[in-house]
């Protein structure tokens, strides 16, 4: 008999969290959804807290993969037709849209708001680390494209932008008001792009 993969167990956990939230989901619920017994679930993944942690990380990786596919790579310096500011606008807008429209995040913010807020703030270190890595990579590539020298503050800029995205997800009704794609593009053009490009 083929042993079930960790990925399929985390997919089952995600599906169950979408239905009943994190707080009301038991290990038995996840195991039942995955078609395994609870002992197998805990042996392959760990405790419920570990299942939640890994599910959040897996969801983060999926979101980052969608964002990366949408924005594409930054070309080598001198490539014709590439607009760095437009790239930053797209990166920012796609990121905020993906976060705000993510089914798991939105469902958990409704049915498990307190627990989800803790997960997105106090326990968000690993998620921010993953997000920051992609942002830092693109900042370095964009700086090379526009001819700015490498600077020591890129990692700080990247984590600041990742935290900005986190804040915009958690408090969408607070300034800056970014409730349309046009406003997102304008904000990215006037605020984010100068920081990213260093000019």
Report on the architecture of this protein.
Keywords: DNA-binding. Helix content is 73%, strand content 0%. The protein has helices at 6-20, 27-34, 38-44, 48-71, 84-101, 103-111, 113-120, 125-146, 154-170, 181-197. The protein folds into two domains: 1-46, Arc Repressor Mutant, subunit A; 50-197. The chain has ten helices and no strands. The longest helix has 24 residues, at 48-71. The relative contact order is 0.12. The mean pLDDT is 92. The protein is mainly alpha-helical and 199 residues long.
Helix and strand topology:
Blueprint lengths: L5 H15 L6 H8 L3 H7 L3 H24 L12 H18 L1 H9 L1 H8 L4 H22 L7 H17 L10 H17 L2
Helix pairs in contact: 1-2, 1-4, 1-6, 2-3, 4-5, 4-8, 5-10, 6-7, 8-9
Keywords:
single chain; 199 residues; 73% helix; Arc Repressor Mutant, subunit A
Give the overall silhouette: elongated
String of helices and strands: HHHHHHHHHH
**Largest sheet geometry:** none
Q: What is the strand content?
A: under 5%
The end-to-end span amounts to 59 Å
Number of domains as seen in the coordinates: 2
Per DSSP E runs of 2 or more residues, the count of β-strands stands at 0
Helix-and-strand structural type: mainly alpha
Treating each run of at least 4 consecutive H or I residues as one helix, how many helices? 10
Return the average pLDDT rounded to an integer: 92
Query: How much helical structure, as a percent, in the residues?
Result: over 70%
- Rounded Rg: 19 Å
Oligomer: single chain
Low-confidence stretches: none
